[in-house]
């Protein structure tokens, strides 16, 4: 990434955003380059357990209750592990202070089975991602579609997903219902 990269940061949808994929969303921006950007919606939990959807060979021995989260509308069949700890594997990428991204089937198996996960509640299994072409995110920021906030592992992993968007905006000292669309980066 270059010096102009916004990643990692949180993108907070403005209240007026109507796109159902992003209305009241909190997006962890993982990659931001001249060619485009990639992020994960971190506040869209489903009621589906990963053990019931993921095909691992052999099948998991136990089900820790890991839920599937909707990471975004792009490639919804693609799975990502967002971790608030280093999984100690070469198949992971540090995306910020204490945040790692992995697509490792071995790490996913360990989390589903609960092996070695005692006390490690900072993980999400997400399907899909949010993507922007070159210059697209910058245009959306200039049109005031998003607010930006510092990444907080506590917010991402320990805040009720139904309250995460409002909590993140209020952490900036802003009432989310007083926001108005306007040009400029916020």
Question: What's the structural blueprint in terms of helices and strands?
Answer:
Elements: E1 9-13, E2 26-33, E3 36-41, E4 45-49, H1 50-53, E5 67-70, E6 74-83, E7 92-96, E8 99-102, H2 105-113, E9 123-133, H3 136-142, E10 146-149, H4 153-158, H5 161-170
Parallel strand pairs: 5-9
Antiparallel strand pairs: 1-2, 1-10, 2-3, 3-9, 4-5, 6-8, 6-9, 7-8
Tag the structure with descriptive keywords:
ten-stranded mixed beta sheet; 186 residues; alpha+beta; globular; single chain; 19% helix; 10 strands; VC0467-like; 5 helices
Describe the structure in your own words.
The protein has about 190 residues and is of the alpha+beta class. The chain has a single domain, classed as 3-Layer(aba) Sandwich (VC0467-like), CATH 3.40.1740. The chain has helices spanning about 50-55, 105-115, 135-140, 155-160, 160-170, and strands at about 10-15, 25-35, 35-40, 45-50, 65-70, 75-85, 90-95, 100, 125-135, 145-150. Strands 1, 2, 3, 4, 5, 6, 7, 8, 9 and 10 form a 10-stranded mixed beta sheet that branches. The longest helix has 10 residues, at about 160-170. It is globular, with a radius of gyration of 17 Å. The two termini are about 20 Å apart.
């Amino acid at each position: 990434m270059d010096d102009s990269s916004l990643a990692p940061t949180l993108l907070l949808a403005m209240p007026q955003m109507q796109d159902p994929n992003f209305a009241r969303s909190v997006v962890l921006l993982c990659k931001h380059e001249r060619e485009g950007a990639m992020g994960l919606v971190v506040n869209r939990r489903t009621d589906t357990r990963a053990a019931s959807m993921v095909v691992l060979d052999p099948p998991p021995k136990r089900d820790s209750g890991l839920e599937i989260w909707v990471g975004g509308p792009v490639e919804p069949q693609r799975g990502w592990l967002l971790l608030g700890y280093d999984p100690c594997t070469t198949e992971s990428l540090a995306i910020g202070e204490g945040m790692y991204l992995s697509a490792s089937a071995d790490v996913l198996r360990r989390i589903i089975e609960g092996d070695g996960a005692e006390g490690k509640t900072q993980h999400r299994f997400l399907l899909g991602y949010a993507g922007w072409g070159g210059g697209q995110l910058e245009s959306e920021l200039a049109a005031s579609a998003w607010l930006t906030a510092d990444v907080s592992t506590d917010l991402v992993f320990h805040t009720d997903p139904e309250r995460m968007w409002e909590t993140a905006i209020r952490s900036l000292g802003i009432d989310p219902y007083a926001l108005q669309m306007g040009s400029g980066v916020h």
